[in-house]
Predict the structure.
Amino acid sequence: MKKKAILYPFCEEVLPAVRVFDGLQDCYEISGLVAPSGFGCVGMDAGYSCNHPEIGREVLGELPSEEDWDTLLLFEPRQQTEELYLEKYLEEAVSRRKEVVFLCTEENGIPEKIKKTVVACPKQVRVKACLSLPEEEGWQPQVHEPEIPVVLVGGLLQEADCGAVFTALAERFHRDGKRVAAFSGHPVGGLFGFYSLEHIWRNSELTEDDKVRKINLYINGMAEKSGAEIILLEAPTALMKYDDKALNGFGIQSYMLCQAAPPDYLIGCVPFDLADARMVSALSEDFSCRFGCGLCAVHVSNILLDFADSQQKQKIETLRANMKFVREKIEKEKESSEIPMFDVIGEGIEGLYERINGYA
Amino acid sequence: MGKPFVKLFWTPNAYYCFDVNHNEMLQIERESFYYLQNSLAGKSGTSKEPEEVQQLKEAGYLAEESVVKEIKHPITDYLEDYLGRRMLKLTLQVTQDCNFRCKYCIYSEERNDKQRTHSKKHMNWVTAKKAVDFLWEHSIDSSSVDIGFYGGEPLLELELIRQVVEYSEKLFAGKKLTFSMTTNGTLLTEEMIPYLKEHGIKLMISLDGPKEINDQNRVFQGGGGTFDAVMGKLKMVRRVDSEYAHELQISMVMNPENDFDCINEVYIKEEQLEELFVSAAIVDMEYDDKQAGSSEEYTWKYQYQRFLALLSYMGRIDKKKISPIMVAPVIADMERRLETAQGSRLYAVDAPSGPCIPGQLRLFCTVDGTLLPCERVSETSKTCYIGSLEKGLDLERVSEFLNVSRITAEDCKQCWSFRYCTLCGKKADGGNGRLEAERKRKFCSEVHSYAASKMMLSLLFQEIPVYYGKQAAVIEGGEG
């Protein structure tokens, strides 16, 4: 029987995980989503956090009554936020004798308070990290291209629903009975058996060459160990520089990832205002040179760059536009675009999935 | 050749042609420069077209028409999402009362009939709470929000401010929240300082220069200059918490009829003002249909100080020797000079730069819950009304304000400073309930002159490494 879980803190970046929650694991069922008031979604349907269609689950501002749940699933969002009140909810759950699971990509960097509580209450509080190979397991002088197909999901902006397309694909492959080795940088990924490359990206002692080799070794190792038929990768950062203000890490990590595991299928997540047939075609050509693989398909996102504020703050600032703009854009461009465009959020993953299956 | 859509510039070193459609500055030969100058004057038939001009035309430059066919701000279609999900700042007019009666104040009883006057009206808690809730409901996609306190003199309503701060901190828990207040500072007490610091309330204190200049205009309600009172409070803040005092900002309204050096003197002589950020503006007489006159001395001394500030930016003069009044505008100019090179070309559907998104960047809520694009517009003019807490934002009005250039569309399409315009709806508000083209056009020459100065600055910095290499080497060597 599944345990009833509360997920905290609910935010935009965890919405994709909520959507596929039941399809990718059997331990928990979501009983409630809780967010700090300042996130702006308390009292709203969870889909509102991304201006997406409703998913039928209202976001709460406090932990619900005692009998409604068994486990508190805690994590630190990837995007920087202010005070998260993790400790407050940790203490509250512990005092109510509930199980607490702290989700993370790797066991380094767990907040001190969580570590102490794990030590103090080992039966009640535990850490669930993404899967990883022991460090000493390997070293190789050169990279070996994976022998199974590699699907890479990346965006012009990381926020352009990359996580949503990635998890939806993982769930769809899983539903089809395909064994997938999925690599994501999201802390909640551990719950779904995803692997993380964060321990390699964050290792400052490794040179860039070493990182590529390690990633290659790690991906091949995990794929082999899990008997995977497909490797599914989420680009660690956006695919390329967006403009002179929104630099996106220049797409360097995506490039390194593609050196380590050259993709056979590249799924590009593109903001709707840029999803023109000609633009997508030009991007595909660029990616062919950059990553060795053009675009197989495009997901059109409702994300919009707030250009003026990004310029002011010297960092990417975005907003979520009404989904009608995505539908209108696809309708307008689909005839002329050589690369098929999909709205995974509004129409589901089926169309994109069929495209991958039929892609030579 | 007809009249090309270009603007010509020259320096002692080179000749340039700014191609408006491409938003590109092209260095050209002297011969081409004079040919284009003649073309602009309608005398193109007098000489043979230089080869360089032919080549530029072949490359798509020097078109005779603007590519802009329709004026429409690029975010017009997404206004509902910007205002519904990404509001960034709310300014609360907590009171219309003030303990000062500054002679140039836009709310002064003697000044104008297009703005409200001082009154005892103040915001109540119900309205303030509703306004904060409004910001919360409209900012889910904003990574940070700011709440500003404005008046009149906001410190007259300290209790309300405390309520708003306490409530907002709870409501926005988990989101970056900042507070700011524009105040004359005279009502600050020692007890307030730890509170203001604890809640990160940034103060912008108004002061117009040394005593003899400040006290000409900035006087108490009952009469008498305010300089000593303000300086006393600044001293007190420094004594109570020097760290917090260091964060204070000074807002200065300059009357250009005064001598710039005299205005500036206060920052040299008063240690309370040392190293504080100064935001200076010229006295606002737009709603009086007047322009502030400026003395000759003010103009050349201002320009000289600007020159010194540029030298300081280049590392030739110690920053401490520069007028603090000039630091912010020169840094802004230097940052914007890069925009000259980075701005995008013109498109068929485009809008002049200038207006911010009304209501998104600094929504102003009056004591009774009326919503205006910002605190600088007229509160009595219907033109600037963009909604109320009761009825929400009126998107049609916001769109109209955002697309103010539609009222001068044909002029704007042909304007060489399209990408460098600074005019918003306020400049077209004559208080008659509609945006007025004639009123807006009055400010165009100011925009052109600003854009030209910005481009000349950009050219100067482009030329430094080419034509002033030796002098630049001295800078790098630190011998200057």
Notes: The interface with chain A takes residues 77-78, 80-82, 85-86, 88, 136-137, 139-141, 143, 170-177, 342, 356-357, 361 of chain B (CB under 8 Å). The mean pLDDT of chain B is 89. Chain B is about 40% helix and 15% strand. The first strand of chain B starts at residue 6 and ends at 10.
